[in-house]
Amino acid sequence: NGETGIRGRGNSTWGYQKKPYRLKFNKKTSLFGYGKAKSWVLLANYLDPTLIMNTVAFELGQRFGLPFTNHATHVELFMNGKYRGSYVLTEQVQVNEYRVNIDEKKGFFVELDTYYDEEPKFKTSTYSLPVMIKSPEDLTDPSGYDFVKNDINVLTDALGAAEFPNNNYLDLIDASTFIDFMLVNEIVRNTEFQHPKSMYMYKKDENSKICMGPLWDFDWGFGYAGSGHKYFNSPNEMLLKPNYTGSQIGYKYFRRFFDDPA
């Protein structure tokens, strides 16, 4: 019964016949018992023949105990009296006390994405990971983002160092979140893992370690082959398999962790 703005969202998904949307309510609102926020997402799942692939990935994240994992509620969408189909309502991935709950001044929240189309952004000194800073935001002094760049570069430099893994890299990360994040993406075979696209990292405050998450966007998961829009291909093939000859920087970054026997 409240008032909301509505706009299109997504990159490639916006080009399909069934459109995904973002809702922004006039005030913080709870939907289906989830924590109050203004922004919510309606996923169209246009390519998904099952309509539940994003839901399954979120469910895995919940069962793994991966922090800040989204919830999913399947809804039937009617707009202006016209039926628009089955959608998934879920949280907008953002900093919020009920979502990515971090210190907005002393922590950070970033997206790794080869679209690399949102400011502020930078590429890491090692692996050239495309990083877009979601929080802190709207700083008038660009130097306020330096601690984000420094922390992430220290991590990627440690991963790329000749002495890896016999250095301090585990002091920099919450290893359990990295492991669980990679496991979920491997289990559902999310090929965007390799690029990377829609991959998130955060640090709660200045005394915390860097974490992976939350999970997002599994339209190219579950063995998706771009040609012909077919799913459930290559079920026995690991995304982060050894001796892969592809050039994707996401693969090089995430695969590096496997060089640590632990």
Secondary structure tally, helices: 4
Q: How does the major sheet shape up?
A: 5 strands, antiparallel
Instruction: Please identify the structural class as seen in this structure.
Output: alpha+beta
Written as H for each helix and E for each strand, in order along the chain, the element string is: EEEHEEEEEHHEEH
Mass-distribution shape: globular
Could you characterize the architecture of this molecule?
With 262 residues, the protein is an alpha+beta fold. The chain contains four helices and ten strands; from the N terminus they run βββαβββββααββα. The chain has helices spanning 53-64, 146-160, 175-187, 249-255, and strands at 4-8, 21-29, 37-43, 73-79, 82-91, 108-112, 121-123, 130-135, 199-203, 211-212. The protein has a five-stranded antiparallel sheet with strand order 1-2-3-5-4, with no helix packed on it. Strands 7-8-6-9-10 form a five-stranded antiparallel sheet. The model has no long low-confidence stretch (mean pLDDT 95).
Short description:
The protein has 262 residues and is an alpha+beta fold.
Write the topology of this structure.
Layout: E1 4-8, E2 21-29, E3 37-43, H1 53-64, E4 73-79, E5 82-91, E6 108-112, E7 121-123, E8 130-135, H2 146-160, H3 175-187, E9 199-203, E10 211-212, H4 249-255
Antiparallel strand pairs: 1-2, 2-3, 3-5, 4-5, 6-8, 6-9, 7-8, 9-10
Helix pairs in contact: 1-3
